[in-house]
Amino acid sequence: MFHDETARGLQVDQEHMLNLSAFMVMLLVSLVGSAVVKMRRLSCMLAGMAMATASVFVAGRTDSGYIFLLGIVFFSLGEMLTGPKKNE
C-alpha cells in the first residue's frame, strides 16, 4: 500500500486513494445522515455541494498525496451531506 522512496517521500498506491471515498461512504453514511436529519434540505445540499466542489478543486491543485487524500475525505463528506437529503 505505501512505498517509501526517499527522493519523493511516502508514496500511496493510486487504487487505495480512489477506494478511500467508497470506503468512507460505506462506514459513515448512516452517521452523517442521522447527524443532518434536522437540517433544512436546501441548506444541507448547498453545504454538501460547496464542500465537494472545494475539495475537488483542492485535490486537483496539489502535488501532495496527503492533501489529495484530505480532498477525497472532504469530497466524501460533501457527498454524504448531499445524498440523504436528495432522496427525501
Structural class: mainly alpha
**How many beta-strand runs?**
2
Identify low-pLDDT runs.
Answer: none
- CA(first)-CA(last) distance: 38 Å
Computed Rg:
15 Å
Count of discrete structural domains: 1
- Return the string of H and E elements: EEHHH
Proportion of residues in extended strands: 5-15%
Approximate shape: elongated
Number of helices: 3
- Helix % is over 70%
Instruction: Tell me the strand order in the biggest sheet.
Output: 1-2
Structure explained in plain terms:
The chain is mostly helical. 74% of the residues lie in helices and 9% in strands. The chain has a two-stranded antiparallel sheet. Helix 1 runs parallel beside helix 3 (65-86) and helix 2 (41-61) runs antiparallel to helix 3 (65-86). The longest helix is centred in the first third of the chain and has 22 residues, at 14-35.
Please give the structural blueprint.
Elements: E1 2-5, E2 9-12, H1 14-35, H2 41-61, H3 65-86
Antiparallel strand pairs: 1-2
Q: What keyword list fits this structure?
A:
88 residues, 74% helix, two-stranded antiparallel sheet
